[in-house]
Write a structure and sequence with these properties.
Number of strands: 10
Helix content: 40-55%
Radius of gyration: 36 Å
Largest sheet: 5 strands, parallel
Strand order of the largest sheet: 1-5-4-2-3
Shape: elongated
Length: 298
């Protein structure tokens, strides 16, 4: 009986030892797995940190290539004058809201290289006067960056070129974008109706509404309804007609109800379309001018 009891005790001890050994082995494996996972996680975190740091460094380096001004500074500059505020957005965006006295020369869509060539031509003609240039694009990034490159290629000193930080989005938040062109810093030019009527093949653009035009207009004059002169669609119609039907090398004469402010809006739009403002005239007194009325046809 004692022997049997001893044998049972010995067997139990051996079984316990085996269980303990197996348990220890699994624990070791678990520890090894946990360590490996920790190492992988640490490596992944380190890689992510490195990538983030590289991205931040690249962004910082990119920003350092450009000079920035705030939206408020851009608006003040446009109001005070002496600085070019250059808007490079597409017309659909620009016409919906712009900074007063800004100049429009689009660089969008960015893949259209002909726009870069046109911007160089514009820079050669209008921007090489030593004044600073504040660039407005949609958000103050890609468009402004490309425009900066193009202007430098045109020979503009990079120290004179600034990006409006935040672009049109920031300006909109400031509440300064407008479709009102009447207060532009343009040297408005006026001409008497009698003097226009004797000009052969004069480019006369009637900007009254359709009803008024139908009741009486100058023969062979072109027509664009600009009565709602702050309406973006009406301004676009004026712009499109000018580009498609008018000769930029010849004077253009605008006829409205009384000679102001609709005609001023038309002058401003044509200036954006690349017409020399020295060739843009407002007919004094508009449709109320007696000489003009006498020449009306239906």
């Amino acid at each position: 009986m004692k022997k049997r009891f001893l044998v049972l005790m010995l067997a139990s001890a051996m079984t316990a030892s085996m269980i303990t050994g197996c348990g220890s082995g699994n624990a070791g494996a678990a520890k090894e797995t946990t360590a490996a996972e920790s190492t992988t996680a640490a490596a992944s975190t380190a890689a992510e940190s490195t990538t983030a740091a590289q991205s931040a460094a690249a962004e910082t380096a990119s920003k350092e290539e450009y000079q920035f001004v705030s939206a408020q500074e851009a608006v003040k500059a446009a109001t005070d004058g002496g600085i070019h505020v250059l808007d490079v957005r597409e017309w659909s965006n620009y016409g919906s809201g712009r900074v007063v006295n800004s100049e429009w020369q689009p660089i969008f869509p960015l893949e259209d290289e002909s726009l870069a060539d046109k911007m160089k031509e514009y820079a050669e003609k209008n921007l090489k006067d030593g004044e600073k240039i504040y660039i407005i694009c949609n958000s103050g990034q890609r468009g402004a960056q490309k425009a900066t490159t193009v202007l430098q290629e045109a020979g503009i000193d990079k120290n004179l070129i600034y990006t409006v930080e935040g672009g049109a989005k920031a300006l909109k938040e400031e509440g300064v974008l407008t479709t009102n062109r009447v207060e532009e810093g343009i040297e408005w030019q006026y001409i008497k109706g009698a003097d226009v009527l004797v000009i052969e093949n004069a480019q006369i653009v009637d900007v009254r509404d359709k009803g008024a035009y139908a009741e009486g207009h100058i023969e062979n004059s072109l027509h664009v309804d600009l009565k709602e002169f702050q309406n973006a669609d009406a301004q676009k119609a004026m712009y499109d007609m000018a580009v498609e039907k008018l000769n930029k090398e010849e004077p253009v004469y605008f006829l409205c109800y009384i000679g102001d402010p609709i005609a001023k809006t038309a002058v401003s739009i044509l200036k954006d379309a690349g017409f020399d403002e020295k060739n843009l005239f407002i007919i004094e007194g508009g449709a109320k001018n007696s000489d003009i009325q006498a020449a009306f046809v239906k």
